[in-house]
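Quality-control log, excerpt.
Job 1 of 2 completed; input and output follow.
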Amino acid sequence: MAEYENRERFIPFRKSEIITLACEEGTFDHAEQEKFLSVCKILESIYHFEFHKKSELLKENYYPFNPDKDTRTMRNYSPEDIRKSENNLIENFKAILNDANYEEITEEDLAYAIEKESLFQISLLVDFDDFDSRLIFWRGIKSKKVTFKKWFVKKMEVDIPIFERVAMLIKFKDAAYFEAKKRKDLHFEPESMIIKLFKNIPKADIEMLFPNTQVRMKLKDMLLMGGTAIGGGIAVFLKTSAGLIAMASVLWFMISSFITGGDIPPLRPAEISGMIAGVSALAALGGFVLKQWNNYKNRKIRFMKTLGDNLYFKNLGNNAGVFHHIIDAAEEEECKEAVLSYYFLLRDGNGLTESALDNVIEAWFENTHDVRVDFEIKDALRKLKELALCKVIGQDEKGEDIFQAVSLDMALERLDYIWDNYFQFNV
């Protein structure tokens, strides 16, 4: 049973397409195909029912933290209730993400995002101390070729890793924390919890997803603006230096006369002209400083617009709405794994060990459909055993159990029994 570091657990085909691909292989005759499709249909129904319960549990535990809730409650949540709801929510959300074949983003990934060059040419600052807890998971990774200009002249083409899906849960600290830091005009409620789902996020830009992100200038931006400001400032100063010197001379003459004689002599026309020239020079310098400040603000606004535009088009869901996306994805992945493992055990007929079944499924994806998947064989067999869709018929020479699928008729009977006995109200 091979293990891979460069393959994902995610199966990049729809459940319906997996079933169609299996049927098109010619393993079944017409009658068997109809039975196989019925097995798949009942499996879908069972997993849909099971994940509906998990969805309700997530929503129930999220309620006290949900900033978007529009219903009232008669329940008074104690601090212990709040802690219990938070722990249950985080535990169950992580479990659902795992079922959906998401992977957790590590501290190394966050460090990579902070240090690496941003795809959107902006630099961001995140204060992680604002959070009581945080979860970030990804699923699906691809690369995108992007051309950068280095030092404004040389063009470089680089491969940027892109996360196809990123799920995030953030719990903020309480109001006392933000009051102590004198943080005002918060765009979120202290102690609330936000949940987000995004698509196509560059690995180097994960930090842009955090709700307290602040834009900061890159070194080259500061050098560009600083160089422009210094160069322009020198030019303005040279143009206005004569007026400033003339005004300074007049002021010094007036101050000296006042100190020595106690009186300020009347100004001659030349001195008045010097004062006017000086005031004009000061106005020119002030205008230049104001222009540079406005340039800085406009550049920051452009940065924020870039950030806002990208998040707007990459957002897939918010808060409780994310549960529906994740639950649906988890339901799909669990069902695909069960269908694939049952189909390939059924196709072989003589039985396969865990490692052999894993290799057969991964080879089918790679050789037939040009997709490399790290199939979750242990989880798939666990599901089949729980549903009684396979049995152990012996061991190989290495002592590994050999699994065999039950017949289509037995599978239908077993799944129908499970479905019929979800509710038993007869006394």
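Job 2 of 2 completed; input and output follow.
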Amino acid sequence: MNQLRIIQLEKKFEDRKKDENPVFSLKPVHLTIKEGEFFSLLGPSGCGKTTLLKLLAGLEQADQGEIWIGETEITNVPPESRNFAMVFQQPLLFPHMNIEDNIAFGLKMKKVKRAERIERAREMLGHVGLKGYGQRFPDELSGGQQQRAALARALVSDPRVLLMDEPFSALDPSLREEMRILLSRIHQEFGTTVVFVTHDREEAFHLSDRIGVMSDGNLLQVAGAKELYEKPASIQVASFLGLKNILKGSAGKFGMENRSQQVELADSRKSSMTHLIIHPEKLQLSTDLEKQSTAEEIIFEGIVKQLRFNHGFYLCTVQTENTLLECSISSRQAETVSIGQKVKLSAQLKGLHFVSR
């Protein structure tokens, strides 16, 4: 198996003008990416995801750690000898070459005969939806078409790993969606191992088998999209994923106490948990102020502050005694709720998620 193994890889960037702490430090990353997996590195700008990608490509040298592909260590192997391909934010096509020759350029560097490389380039043009565009030049193509050509150029050499650094960030929303669908199909067809860098949560969730969330040079959590959303490992991960209902309390042996609520924990092993995360779809809104809580649920009282339409449903923001809570409600229910109205929110205890920090 040609797994991509990253073993305690780290990188520090020093400020040459000052003899102080590093300007940025990629903390030790330990990670295994399966052969044929679509793996995304997700995080805000400056979190270290592109630095990690450049280390994998050989464009940066690690200070510590190792990189292995299968049984071969490639930590100090030059970029051109790794048989990795990279797609950047910009297509970086050669303006003086037509698209066919652009795509075949890597094969030319590998001394592949012209007839074969042109045949393979034309075949790859068909895979990315650019059949018949081979004789055009880059400036005759749209931004989306240029990025398709860049993807074809990367794949034509049959790389062991395809590295992608926010390749769709410069495209408008409709083109980005189009490219996501294309990339997903291409990945299924070729089965190439992909390491994809993005700051877009929706993009990562749409494309990935697994996702690694990064922040401040740290790899915080690695999981599939469903597990990542339902069970974020920390409030930092939850916040980046857009979850708003994060309640801080004081941990105790029997429960996590908030000034107005106490939640009994399922077992004593959770006694160190200090934050409660409630997903908006787990909260049920009721205008019945007489509603009483049961032993299996928690109830909050509050006032509706905002109703916001969002992809077929509404997000309702409720001001409770201690915090703002956000819940998802249907369009029909939104018609019965108004700003300033007193409501109750309830959630089943089994649907709550606790984290320690």
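Post-run check on job 2. The chain has two domains: 4-239, 243-355.
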